[in-house]
Amino acid sequence: MIERLEGLDALELREVPDPAPPGPGEVTVAVSAVGLNYPDLLMLSGGYQFKPPLPFTPGMEGVGRIAAVGEGVSGDLLGHRLLLGGRTGLLAEQVTLPLASLREVPEALADAEAAGFTTGALTAWVSLVPRGRLQPGEHVLVLGAGGGMGLAAVSMAKALGAHVTAAASSQAKLDAAKQAGADAVLMMDRAAPDLSALKGEVDILFDPVGGPAVLPALKTLRWGGRYLVIGFVAGMPDRVPTNLALLKGIEIVGVRAGEAGRQDPALGRRAMHEIDRIAGEGHLRPIVGLEVPFEEAPRAFRAMQDGSLLGKAVVRMPEG
Predict the structure, then answer these.
(1) How far apart are CA 271 and CA 269, in angstroms?
(2) Cβ–Cβ contacts within 10 Å for residue 74, how many?
(3) Domain that holds residue 69
(4) pLDDT at position 313, please?
(5) How many structural domains is the chain composed of?
(6) What pLDDT does residue 244 have?
(7) Span 63-77, pLDDT tens digits
(8) pLDDT digits (tens, 9 = 90+) for 216-236
(9) Which residues pair with residue 56 across a beta bridge?
(10) CA 247 to CA 236: how far, in whole Å?
(11) Which of 6, 152, 209, 273 lies 20 to 30 A from 279 at CA?
C-alpha cells in the first residue's frame, strides 16, 4: 500500500480487513500472482498520467481463483481460474470484482505467465493493429526489447506476420528477444544509441524507451513509416524535428491501450478477444525474469527501477 507519493521507499506491506462479501454479480478472488508494469512503479511517486487517490494498492494485472460468489453468480465457479485487470488494487491476497470484468485464462499460460500477460499483449496489439496498421511482411523495430513490454511486442509482431528486429542493451536481453521470436537483434547503448545500420529500412517503430533513442530511431523509418510512442523509460526525448515527419511522410502515433478501450468499448472488447485468441494458439508466452513472494514485492519494483529486469516481474501470493 502507498499512503504518500514518495516512490518505492514508501511502499508498505499492510494487514487490512478482508474485502466485503461479494454483492450481486460480484466474486471474491484469491489472488495467485500479480504481474508488475512500469506504470505501477510510476504511480508510486505520482509520475503516471493516472493518479489514484491515496492511499492505494498497486497492481494492474494478475490471475486468481474464485473464493466466494455473490447473488446471481453460480457456485460452480468456485475455484475457477481467471485473469484479473484494473488500474490499481490487485497487489493483495484477495480482491472483490464484478465477474463481468474477469476473463478466462488462455490454457497455454501458467499462473506466472498469465499474471504478466494482459498489459503487454494489449499494448502490443493496439499499437500494431489499429494504431500502426501493420501488414504482414512489414519490418518492425522494437526498442527496449528485453523488457516485458518490448518482448510482448516482439511476440505479437511475429504472430501478425511481421519481420522483427529487436534492439536492447545487453546480450541477455537480445537472447530473450530471440526466444520471443525476433528475426534479427541489435545491441543498443541506451545513453548513445546507434541505429544507423537500419536507416530507412523500418516500417513500424515500437518505442517504450524514449530519451536519447528517439532521434536515431526516427531515422530508421522509410517513407510512410509509423513511429509508435509507447512510453519514456529512458526519459523524455530531445525536441523532435517535425520537418523529418514532413520530409519522410512518417506518422508519429501516440498509444494508450487502456484508454483506447475506454474511449471505444467495442475496440477494447475486440482487443481482449484477439490477445486471448493469439495466446491460446501459443504465440504469446511472457518471459518471467523475476518471481518473488508477496512480502518481497519491493524487490521486483526495484528491478524495474534500476533497469536490471529481463522480461516480466511477477509477485506470488501466499497459498491457502
Answers:
(1) 5
(2) 10
(3) 8-117+287-316
(4) 95
(5) 2
(6) 86
(7) 999 999 999 999 999
(8) 999 999 999 999 999 888 788
(9) 2
(10) 23
(11) 209
Q: What is the pTM of this model?
A: 0.90
The three cell numbers locating residue 77 = 465457479
Cell of 186: 541489435
Strand ranges for 60-191 from DSSP E: 61-69, 81-85, 94-98, 103-104, 139-142, 163-168, 184-187
Instruction: Mark whether 45 and 152 lie in a shared domain.
Output: no
Distance CA 145, CA 208 (A): 9
> Is there a contact between 309 and 147 (Cβ–Cβ < 8 Å)?
yes
CA distances from 133 to 127, 251, 253 (A): 8, 11, 11
Looking at the structure, tell me whether residues 60 and 146 fall in a common domain. Answer: no
In this structure, is residue 149 part of a structural domain?
yes
Residue found under cell 484494473: 86
Q: Kindly state whether residues 217 and 136 are assigned to the same domain.
A: yes
Ramachandran sector of residue 223 (left: φ over 0; alpha: ψ -120 to 50; beta: rest)? beta
Mark the ranges of the chain whose per-residue pLDDT is less than 50.
Answer: none
Cβ atoms of 250 and 244 closer than 8 Å? yes
